[in-house]
Amino acid sequence: xxxxxxxxxxxxxxxxxxxxxxxxxxxxxxxxxxxxxxxxxxxxxxxxxxxxxxxxxxxxxxxxxxxxxxxxxxxxxxxxxxxxxxxxxxxxxxxxxxxxxxxxxxxxxxxxxxxxxxxxxxxxxxxxxxxxxxxxxxxxxxxxxxxxxxxxxxxxxxxxxxxxxxxxxxxxxxxxxxxxxxxxxxxxxxxxxxxxxxxxxxxxxxxxxxxxxxxxxxxxxxxxxxxxxxxxxxxxxxxxxxxxxxxxxxxxxxxxxxxxxxxxxxxxxxxxxxxxxxxxxxxxxxxxxxxxxxxxxxxxxxxxxxxxxxxxxxxxxxxxxxxxxxxxxxxxxxxxxxxxxxxxxxxxxxxxxxxxxxxxxxxxxxx
Length: 367
Description:
Layout: E1 2-8, E2 16-22, E3 29-38, H1 41-48, E4 57-58, E5 62-70, E6 82-85, H2 95-98, H3 106-111, E7 124-126, E8 129-133, E9 143-147, E10 151-153, H4 160-180, E11 189-192, H5 196-208, E12 213-217, H6 220-229, E13 233-236, H7 241-247, E14 254-259, H8 264-272, E15 274-282, E16 304-307, H9 315-327, E17 337-341, H10 346-354, E18 360-364
Parallel strand pairs: 4-8, 11-12, 11-14, 12-13, 14-15, 15-16, 17-18
Antiparallel strand pairs: 1-2, 1-4, 2-7, 3-5, 3-9, 3-18, 5-6, 6-10, 7-8
Helix pairs in contact: 4-5, 4-9
């Protein structure tokens, strides 16, 4: 079959919306007719060349839709199911999956950077040339072929434009608070960086029952947005940010810092604003070869740090839970969407993202 997709042929050039061809489904494949896909900074990194993938490739990894067909052996989803795509499907039987670290699944980490699915194969082509898969989703297209583990059923009452956000930014931010930091009732939490992931870290801390939730960002307007998601205080990032954090936390510093700024200065602030015995979750990122320095004294005092890429996700448990929280009015998803566009406007959406505008732009597909 053929369908329209936004294809990246060369870095730092616009995506081309064109027809690609899908080969027949293989055992374990799930074909999803996509209904919505969020634009994420990770996609932008691939466009700009900071995140290297083989080309051509269909970007997009924050997507949701309806199962159209399944390959042989698929038992956990069926045609007609509404699903959220997980960009980190896991095999369930390798060393890391057995060790309860599916984020490090060996087939995924082996094949995904090469633009391939969990089984090491590809299914897409254009003019006889292989088109690569992005993060096992390739959601900027009318259809996506996924490993079964990457198609997670959710309640049909969940709107697609809200559901797609759960697949990356929401899971990463909310999960950082609930699953990774395990924020406890009454704890003081600092969230550095109030973009899409940071705002979800804020509401994750709120859902956990945190005491003070201090949002830190360079942009005062983003701090006001963070307050609408549950932050109790806003701090403009600067030289005195650590002292202001301590002044609001009985002079000790935060119990938990969720870093979502992705900058050496925000990494350093995470430790400067943390109390002795506290814990830091690093969500932001810089170039993999970039070195980051810290004041050694800021690391002292039995402080603990962990890097998290997906909020400790267990998609089959977490995605439906987050969907139910939304339906119960406890999780804010609609408020994250600042623009809705069609596939033909995808380059305009990425231009806005590159300029730091909005929180999430969602590409919507016809039903």
